[in-house]
Amino acid sequence: MKSVSHDIALELQAFVVREARLADESQYQEWEDLWADDAVYWVPLKDGDDPAKKVSHLYDNRTRIGTRIRQLKTGYRYSQLPVSGLRRVISNYEYSEEADGRYRVEANFYLPEFSSQATHTFRIWSGRFVYILSRRDDAFQMHMKKILLVNGLEPIPTLSFLI
Amino acid sequence: MTTQIDYHHLIQADKVHGSLYTSDEIYADELEKIFHNGWVYVGHESEIKEKGDYLTREIGRSSVIMVRDKDGSTKVHANRCMHRGNMLCNEAEGNKRNFTCPYHGWVFGLDGTLMDVAYPGGFEKPLSELGLQTLVSDSYRGFVFASFVQPKLSFDDYLGNAKSLLDRSCEMSPTGKIDLRGGWVRQHFDANWKMLPENDTDGYHVNYVHQSFVMAIDSQYGEFVGAEDSIKGVIKDWGNGHTEIDFSDGYAKTLDWLGSTPEKVKSYVDSMVEAYGKEKADKILYAGPPHACIFPNLFLGEMNIVIFQPTGTNSAVQWSTPMFLDGASELDFKLLRQSEGALGPAAFLLADDATIAERAQKALLSGDPWCDLSRGLNRETTDEAGVITSHMTDETSNRGFWFHYRNVMTGAK
Inter-chain contact A71–B187, Cβ cutoff 8 Å? Predict the structure, then answer.
């Protein structure tokens, strides 16, 4: 692992900020298009869990991401009808370059989701994002997005939006 | 607490009253009559394999510890120090040699005996009088149930026909044993706990609540959403509040329930044939695991074990874990991914059930309080054993839950 230049850090941050905006705005297709073929979109119960042994809240490969987006695009996924109000705040960025040339970005997130499908209440989500990215065309693609919730081992409410 | 709630008025032959979901009084009554005085599912013996292994769960709102004692037996204790009521054990699971209270250092053995009191010079009472409150408990095929007081119904009578449902889950394994070691996903609902068992054995909602799933995903559930006459699954009331959706007659081919084929899981199929003989193995592999609720709080969710936990009049938690099979660990990865797909807060299925329950919880506060539960009264049939069967979209299962609930809440059972 080595550090990245300031310019690359800015590029990586811009990617993360855009990914966050697409997720916040439920731009399903554009968000799906960010993924690489070896995608892992993962919300484990806790950091360090082996997905071959332990259940996760969400553990999607590229195919399952496609299924998830297809389901959301039907317009009948009640748990996102209407879409939740989402504006996540991301901070505390840390960047590194891995041995294989991919980039790792870690950051904290705070997301007060306004859930308007039934309860019309705020639901608080908080934790750490871990991204593994590589260059594709003149941008990046996501190989992994791991979401480590601070309360991952606790009961959590419906998580059908793009976190 | 004494209450004068008229459950015979609230639960009628073809309708139930909305206050059953929204009344604080009824919720408090349930915590006493169902979750204190009756048999409640706690955990599975495979979760506490070694001596000293324990887990903490809630029965109603009471925290309990389920532990493997030194003599190999399973015990369930109230998770409360007998001194000043502190929480004895704050961890969800682990292994301990004894339970030491963090407040004043009292030490309890795995069997609940009070073994040591710090600074004994100031304490005269015999330690034997202050052991942990140990619940009445019993188990069937590793499924451990407990109650704070000796229930009216014997364990055997309580389970009744549910024994065959638990058997069917266990017989998915070539050694007849399930193994719950995959961890627990916990999904919070802003809705009353009774909507969870109602939903889980409701065959009527699939086309509607899970329309997005059926449209987006090719699965065995697609076999159950056609025209009324073509649906071959059935709904069942097994008595004592135990209910089922039986999909087996509707499956197109063997291993549909696993989303697989005999070629892909050859080692599992071979071990099943070796264990049960070809004829029985073929039947098991075709019919698949049960999809059934054991009153009040256990759901055999096909290849998952699910627990309902009430957390308030308007809130509940559904726990889920994949049902690993002893002797078939090659299925683990698939079962984990299937579990994540069906159950839990991000699932393709349960996420939408939660929203539907939450909408009902709000709407039930307004207007006419009655909920119609008459579907199937015109066509359900009862066999010699008293098991009631009807079309998969009928509310026979819901009535089965409510009539038993009424018996429990009025003291009839």
Answer: no
pLDDT score, position B3: 57
Q: State whether A74 and B321 contact (CB < 8 Å).
A: no
A1 in any annotated domain: no
Whether residue B28 contacts residue B1, with contact meaning beta carbons closer than 8 Å, is answered with: yes
Answer yes or no: are the C-beta atoms of B47 and B57 closer than 8 Å: no
Asked whether the beta carbons of residue B354 and residue A158 sit closer than 8 angstroms, the reply is: yes
Domain limits for position A57: 6-149
| Distance (Å, whole) CA B320 – CA B299 | 9
C-alpha distance from B354 to closest chain A C-alpha (Å): 7
pLDDT of B2 strictly over 60: no
The answer to whether residue A163 is domain-embedded is no
Note whether B183 contacts A45, CB cutoff 8 Å.
yes
Backbone angles phi, psi at A146, to 5 degrees: -110, 135
Mean model confidence pLDDT for chain A: 97
CATH of the domain at A126: 3.10.450.50
Annotate A43-74 with b (16+ C-beta within 10 A) or e (fewer): bbbeeebeeeebbbbbbbbbebbebbbebbbe
ipTM score over 0.95, yes or no: yes
Q: Name chain A contacts of B92, Cβ cutoff 8 Å.
A: 153
Q: A118 and B213: CB-CB below 8 Å?
A: no
**pLDDT, mean over chain B:** 96
Give the integer Cα–Cα distance in Å for A111 and A127.
9
Q: How many domains does chain A have?
A: 1
Confirm whether A155 is domain-assigned: no
* β-strand partners of B292: B244, B300
Query: Distance, in angstroms, between A11 CA and closest chain B CA?
Result: 30
How much is the average pLDDT of B32-37? Answer: 97
Of the candidates B347, B340, B402, B336, the one whose C-alpha atom is nearest the C-alpha of residue B373 is: B402
Give the mean pLDDT of A28-47: 98
Per-residue model confidence as pLDDT tens digits over B233-248 = 999 999 999 999 999 9
What is the tens place of the pLDDT at every residue in B59-69? 999 999 999 99
Residue A160 in domain: no
Closest Cβ opposite residue B209 in set A49, A75, A78: A78
What does DSSP say about strands B62-68 and B93-95: parallel, antiparallel, or unpaired? unpaired
Q: Which domains does chain B have, with CATH numbers?
A: 40-147 (2.102.10.10), 161-409 (3.90.380.10)
